[in-house]
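call fold(seq) -> tokens
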Amino acid sequence: MQNRSYQQQSVAGKNGVELIVALYDGMVRFLNRAIAATGVGDVQERRIAVKRVLDILIHLQSRLRMEAGGPAKALSEFYAAIFALCLEGSRLSSPERFRKAIECIWPVREAWRQAAQDPETLRQFSAPGSTNALTSVSAASATEGPIGSRWTA
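ret:
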């Protein structure tokens, strides 16, 4: 067996919708880290945590099929709003902005969790040749590993 982290192994057997839930969980986890780092004045840790949230948002945004309209457009606007809250939170060292982001993320995460239990949703996400862009969510996005961006918040 490959030497993989516990977090990577925990997402290995998940379907596309469950991976999206894991990404939302990752955003909340990293936002809580940003809150804690802000509380103790650890600028570097805050930036690292915020960067991870932004990486996840960029990943999710890049997987949207905008030509599908409706939900993709709404999710795009949602991701942009969370992105802005995170940048403001980092710039202002504001735990309140990070908490607001968590408050916004949580209901959407819960909707995805419920969708993960819906057979019709799962069928759409697992259809052969499915072009649903969210099925290709990377396990690295929900874990500690970088997704690819090199900038800091």
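Confidence is low (pLDDT under 50) at residues 128-153.
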